[in-house]
Amino acid sequence: MASSAFICDTEPWKDLKSHVENIKKTHLRELMKDVERCKSMIVENDGLVLDYSRQCASQDTMEKLFKLAEAARLKEKIDKMYNGEHINSTEDRSVLHVALRAAKDATIYSDGKNVVPDVWHVLDKIKAFTEKVRSGSWVGATGKALKDVVAVGIGGSFLGPLFVHAALQTEPEAAKCAEGRRLRFLANVDPIDVARNITGLSPETTLVVVVSKTFTTAETMLNARTLREWISAAIGPQAIAKHMVAVSTNLTLVEKFGIDPANAFAFWDWVGGRYSVCSAVGVLPLSLQYGFSVIEKFLNGASSIDKHFHSTPFEKNIPVLLGLLSVWNVSFLGYPARAILPYSQALEKFAPHIQQVSMESNGKGVSIDGLLLPFEAGEIDFGEPGTNGQHSFYQLIHQGRVIPCDFIGVMKTQQPVYLKGETVSNHDELMSNFFAQPDALAYGKTPEQLLGENVANHLIPHKTFSGNRPSLSLLLPSLNAYNVGQLLAIYEHRVAVEGFVWGINSFDQWGVELGKSLASQVRKQLNLSRTKGESVEGFNFSTTNLLTRYLEAESG
Ligand code: F6P
Fold it and tell me: What residue owns the CA closest to ligand 1's atom 8?
């Protein structure tokens, strides 16, 4: 394929376009009868099981998707990523989050330099620092141990670490290591978030980690200044050196802010914000909470998937299969949304993290060459843990719109409960739902079945389930730090696969800029109106009216 051609102009895409019409005529009930097909759609790797037999796809579909991958030069693009080529062309950067979890003796090059020693230099520094804080040899300005950490950051400097933190909170080994410690995340510039985060904390025993790749993000910098003042007001400005550290690629601005460069933890421009959880962005706060050795296992889990993704043939490659199936669902079956449904409360922050990873990466309107896409890329991700989601939006998923679902289950729970007299454990109860829902979606319930159950005629349309709703099931052996790392990397790479096939740049995010610059104009106006009483000017009628009303209300 010539580099400027769209993937939709290729023969494999056109072939899939006609093939999808046949698939649409075949109900999943029929597809599921073919045991050979089902067997071929189960993939195992390192304790993980992926079953995608409930996708509206035949073995023929898969063959055609592999041809599409070839036309998109998927393998070549993956290799370019691992080779440190500047695949993020609009920012002229490599995309090397895989280097963040590479083994110490690995070699991964960016701009002619092996970046792995730099990665490990920072990891070693984190290890040493977090051990000092956790052991109490690094104390606050008043001599007290720093038991609490507030990580200040937003977007990619927040969502990934929050997901991992939530996932490990109830994991026995991690929970034991975290005894007596608290980790909180301050993201929103809303002062309510500040209040919620500092409630119950004392500046004397709190360490603030300011996390920002650019160290310019308005929300993070204001929140950082707010917490700096909180510490200063309580124990004096000299306390900042002991109570505030930073994670950034911009060490000059870190120093300007007043944080000792010795207490700054670097990362690099080849790490995208939403792909940065395995850098100091996540590793520092998470190691403060759980200890470095637990977080190292998380990195190892992600690394195992990096190897799998790079070296496994596409037919058995979990991120590749997931990515191709997403393209199939979005671009051919016409289902633009996806529900992420982990059957584990520990994964409650997984969907919010993947929302950013997926939608900020693939929510693009032009090809990597800047040409308007003749098809829609990206997908709308949302989700909730089961079974909570079942009592919320599953009605729509079962009888309303078709939304392909990712069911994520865990074989062994972090927190087993066996009640006396109950024949199934609490986890079995949860997992009964995990196993049942995909079949309910795939098979549905026919009017004939309802008639056989003597359902009143007038209720039959209401109680009918059309079925034929695609899902996939991903089973993790357990949910320890290693497995959490595996899950993270699977989804990161899946998103990249989608972007590579659609021919977009999944690693820039220009779409967040316009809102930021308009907010800065509003901020200027608020400042002028509040300090000099100037009236609102230069905005359209609607915004002028809203701003004026806001300014007239009691200031706050
Ligand atoms: O939302 C836009 C964005 O640039 C994200 O890509 C990024 O993760 C977030 O803002 C935070 O940026 P920073 O880490 O530079 O503060």
Answer: 156
Å from CA of 314 to ligand 1 middle? 32
Residues with CB under 6 A from ligand 1: 154-157, 212-214, 217, 220, 273-274, 360, 509, 512
Q: Is there a contact between 119 and 100 (Cβ–Cβ < 8 Å)?
A: yes
Contacts of 497 (CB under 8 A, 6+ apart): 74, 78, 319, 320, 322, 323, 324, 326
Predicted ipTM beyond 0.95: yes
Q: Which residues pair with 366 in a beta bridge?
A: 372
In b/e form, how buried is each residue of 178-201, taking b as 16+ CB within 10 angstroms?
A: beebebbbbbebeeebbeebbeeb
Residue 188 alpha carbon to ligand 1 centre in Å? 12
Cα dist. 102→141, 177, 292, 299 in Å?
Answer: 36, 24, 16, 8
For residue range 404-431, list pLDDT tens digits in order: 999 999 999 999 999 999 999 999 999 9
Residue 341 forms beta bridges with which residues?
Answer: 407
Strand partners, 471: 405
Give the span between the Cα atoms of 363 and 98, in whole angstroms.
Answer: 22
Q: Please, which residues bridge with residue 409 across strands? A: 475
Whole-angstrom distance, CA of residue 332 vs CA of residue 95: 28
Q: Is 155 left (phi over 0), alpha (psi -120 to 50) or beta?
A: left
Q: What is the pLDDT of residues 446-455, one digit of tens each?
A: 999 999 999 9
pLDDT digits (tens, 9 = 90+) for 226-236: 999 999 999 99
* Interval between CA 59 and ligand 1 midpoint (Å): 40
Sequence letter at residue 211: V
Residue 154 Cα: closest atom of ligand 1: 11
